């Protein structure tokens, strides 16, 4: 469950957003006061921050720069100040998105989902992933488990990092397609199935105790044998 911090002085709006986003499954924190918001930010360590611009004590642009010194987690500006200059400036100082008020909850949630997914994938691409003895060598496209190794294709490497770094997290099919082929060109889902099957076979060759499973009509995940498996 992703944790969202709302930094907004309009408490009616903050509470409405909190209720709406909790309905989408997010954990949402609304501070009672913004006087000590920097300390709150460090304590909460949010996965994403919704940040207004017109705020008491310190404006949102200043806070964005301060937050960026402490964390790389996504920041989305939500503001009635919507000039092109302000939107560009907000992105230049570290924000990931800038949404002009008024906006719908559906649009906000779509932006949140996209930004979180992009941040997650970017982070995974920059680390060597290890889980329960399984090691991915991203430089040499190798997968190791105990004294065994196998070579990965580009797509298998991306899938390995996603699944192994997020055990039991279900990735929807469109998320995996987007991670593998970041393009508007149509890619048949059978192509994804083939890549998943090849990676599963390589994990089996390594005698890795866990495997990639499917959740019918949803997507795939790395199973830890918790009873979620369907096939």
UniProtKB/TrEMBL annotation:
Where along the sequence lies the DNA-binding region? 126-224
A single GO cellular-component term on record: protein-DNA complex
Q: What keywords appear on the UniProt entry?
A: DNA-binding, Phosphoprotein, Transcription, Transcription regulation, Two-component regulatory system
| Segments forming domain OmpR/PhoB-type | 126-224
- The answer to keyword 4Fe-4S applying to this record is no
In terms of PROSITE patterns, this protein maps to: OMPR_PHOB, RESPONSE_REGULATORY
Q: Which GO terms describe its biological process?
A: regulation of DNA-templated transcription
**Looking at the record's lineage, which domain of life comes first?**
Bacteria
Residues of the Response regulatory domain: 3-116
Q: Which InterPro entries match?
A: CheY-like_superfamily, OmpR/PhoB-type_DNA-bd, Sig_transdc_resp-reg_C-effctor, Sig_transdc_resp-reg_receiver, WalR-like, WH-like_DNA-bd_sf
The record, for SMART domains, names: REC, Trans_reg_C
Give the molecular function GO annotations: phosphorelay response regulator activity; transcription cis-regulatory region binding
Q: Which residues carry this modification: 4-aspartylphosphate?
A: 52
The UniProt function text for this chain reads: May play the central regulatory role in sporulation. It may be an element of the effector pathway responsible for the activation of sporulation genes in response to nutritional stress. Spo0A may act in concert with spo0H (a sigma factor) to control the expression of some genes that are critical to the sporulation process.
Name listed for the protein in its UniProt record: Stage 0 sporulation protein A homolog
Species of the source: Natranaerovirga pectinivora
Taxonomic lineage of the native organism: Bacteria, Bacillati, Bacillota, Clostridia, Lachnospirales
């Amino acid at each position: 469950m992703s944790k969202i911090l709302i930094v907004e002085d309009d408490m009616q709006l903050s509470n409405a957003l909190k209720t709406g986003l909790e309905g989408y499954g997010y954990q949402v924190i609304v501070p009672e006061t913004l006087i000590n918001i920097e300390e709150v930010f460090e304590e909460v360590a949010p996965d994403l921050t919704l940040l207004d611009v017109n705020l008491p004590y310190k404006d949102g642009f200043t806070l964005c720069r301060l937050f960026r010194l402490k964390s790389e987690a996504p920041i989305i500006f939500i503001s009635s100040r919507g000039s092109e200059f302000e939107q560009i400036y907000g992105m230049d100082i570290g924000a990931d998105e800038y949404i002009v008020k008024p906006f719908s909850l559906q649009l906000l949630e779509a932006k949140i989902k996209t930004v979180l997914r992009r941040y997650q994938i970017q982070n995974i691409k920059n680390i060597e992933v290890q889980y329960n003895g399984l090691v991915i060598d991203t430089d040499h496209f190798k997968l190791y488990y105990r004294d065994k190794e196998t070579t990965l294709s580009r797509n298998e490497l991306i899938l390995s990092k996603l699944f192994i770094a997020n055990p039991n997290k279900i990735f929807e099919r469109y998320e995996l397609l987007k991670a593998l082929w970041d393009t508007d060109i149509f890619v048949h889902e059978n192509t994804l199935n083939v890549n998943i099957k090849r990676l599963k076979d390589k994990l089996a060759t390594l005698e890795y105790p866990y495997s990639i499973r499917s959740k019918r009509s949803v997507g795939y995940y790395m199973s830890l044998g918790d009873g979620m498996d369907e096939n």
